Amino acid sequence: MSHRQLDPDDIRPYCPYYAAAMDTLGRRWAATVLRALLGGATRFSDIAAAVPGMTDKLLSQRLKDLEADGLVERVVQATTPVRVDYRLTEKGAALGAVLLDLNRWALDWITLPANP
Prior knowledge:
Layout: H1 16-25, H2 30-36, E1 42-43, H3 44-50, H4 56-68, E2 72-77, E3 83-88, H5 90-93, H6 96-109
Antiparallel strand pairs: 1-3, 2-3
């Protein structure tokens, strides 16, 4: 995969590639689900446990969306009972550094509300 270089002097106010990436990552819980998969293949229940507050229905839909986007792969293990794992594709794994950079930024700059 070739990497396009961004020249800071040539950055335009609008980039359709950036907008498309933000449409994908900006879907509710999408980036959080991707971050939960950074550690490797994971079962649905493990992702659900790692993302508190997300319904199973929404998690199922988000995994389908991310699979359709080519970021997540659903792997069915032929065991009894059948085991289904989710893992990042090469394309999804390439977001790992970006997600962790965003996580570091959040740790430095985001203040969470105090627990009541």
